[in-house]
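Minutes, project check-in

Agenda point 3 was the complex the collaborators sent over. CS summarized: two entities, 657 residues total, and the question is how they sit relative to each other. Sequences were read into the notes so everyone works from the same version.
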Amino acid sequence: MNRDPASGLSTEVDVNLNTRSQGLSRRRFLQATSTLGVVSLVGCAKRQPTWKQGGYRKPDQSRVAILKASSYDRDLTSVILDGIKSFRLDVVGRRVLLKPNLVEYERDTVINTHPAVIGAAIEAFLKLGAKEVKVGEGPGHRRDTDGLLLASGLYPFLKDTKTQFVDLNLDDIRRVPLQSDFMGIDSLYFADTVLQADLLVSMPKLKTHHWAGMTLSMKNLFGIVPGMKYGWPKNFLHWHGINESIVDINSTIRSHFSIVDGIVGMEGNGPIQGTPKPVGVLVFGDDPVAVDATCARVVGLKPERIDYLKSAGAFLGNLDPGGIRQLGERVSGVVQPFEVIESFRHLRI
Amino acid sequence: MRTQIINFLLEQQNRDGSWGFSPAKAGAIEPTAYALMALASEETGRKAVELGVEFLRRTQTARGAWPVNTQDSEEAAWATALAGVALLGFEGTESMCTTAAQFVVDSFGRHPRPWILRLADWMRSFDASYIEENRGGWKWNPATANWVEPTSYALMFLKKLQQSVTNPRASGGNAFKPIIAEAEGLLYQRMCKEGGWNYGNAQVLGEELRPYPLTTAVALIALQNASNAECQKSLGYLQRAVREERSALALCMVVHCFGLYGIPAEPWMQAATDLYGETQYFHNIKTSALALLALQSLDGKSPFRLAS
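CS then shared the predicted structure for the full assembly.
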């Protein structure tokens, strides 16, 4: 696999664009041919990823609930309570960790899970009898998490509800053997607070992602991998493949529930520089593969063409619509096709 | 605030002499290094400093390095560099610093590239317009890319050590000069268009990315070159961006940076102090130690200051 020197990410797209748009100088010809050579070599030698046979019990039937929520100003706690109650989720007396997506802060953008959604989820889980609710995140780019909490507007919600925030980048860490082998390594460190939680709730933003296609409840778990160990950005995961890392992390640490903030999503060049796109939904589910597949369909993309979902659908959860029972709104009733960058046009339905 | 932070740091020291990132967490090298730097000049911190230095002495590996925290076993160059900067402030640590520097130097490298791409690089080098893009620096993890922060920490340590008259290896003067020059070149290469740095990508997919105040301050501290046009451009960015900054961590690092470049920093120390009243820095030990260092820097003291 050819890597961008800075990000460690595949650069096949860049090279192809360069050669097409600017003509073939000697230098660009050499760049392109060397890249193709590597891609071919790696392609021939590609390893077959494995997972523990019998180690997973993919549900016969998963359930995903889509509930309408037109804006962040309305009573989101009752919507989230309705969403959670659609599932037989055991909350009473349990320690709940909410894992939102809090990557960056830039004014007038929709990069992060909206603080009103996080605040409403805190209230909902407490109302349902949770022993404690914490919010934890390990931002991928920035080390000044204190500034993110303040600038994003999350801090007042945490303060009002006396909720503890854990910077998962700086938490105690524990090495955990991986339960599948897509990255080609045997273990990863994870933040200890995640491992101690009884109920891990992934709360992503509904966004496109310029390397993975979409970033949803499964990609959101990159934030439980500690930056203290793997850096800012978590370049170690990029070098082992973003799609591969998503699958291995989720096969090892299962989020028990997902709440996707799709009230306003991000289309185009996500996850940072995309454009706000109102969708007006919150999506709930206890199978992250089914939740992500449903979200992809809501934004007009084919989940079976998204690499990490294709892999995860083979053993972790349900990808096929036949294996997903839809609660609340029907997908067809809320579809809002998202713009995607050129390299992901093939994902469109 | 100064007394409250000193007391907080003294109370939060672990029994083994280390500090974690927050209360009751396992000892980590980064907050330990900053706490040592901050308490070094505080009379009431003497005993804690002795314990902290002893912790570092006890946990340094045979290769001169430290892992990121006591729960990790893999040596990390960036953490080692920060421990080195802290230890340079204390007597009797010369051999620890020398072996740490050797580890940091050995960890210097370019991006790992497959042989076929290295061959392509070599072929491209015959092109007169070719610019070497794969410059050496430091990584968060072995076998990944070089980034701004780890490269900056390593530069801070090696440049300080090079100036240290007590260090026999560095007293020769220019032992680290070639890799320092290349690593500084990497930082300049990664600078954002408007000046300043983020984690280390100025562009992704052709789109310009924005710099961050925190990483800009860290890189400028490492470079400490007021006569350089790119440093001046980045200082310009930082002076604009700091007005809207809400992170105490970033503000404290900016105060430190401005102090090294002779820019008045009192308003930003005040902003950091106001945030302390609001959040107590979320009980973050690294941020608290950096706040104490920032206060000390207003008096002209800095463990990062290089001789001109």
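Noted in discussion: The radius of gyration of chain B is 19 Å.
Follow-up: revisit at the next meeting once the mutant set is ready.
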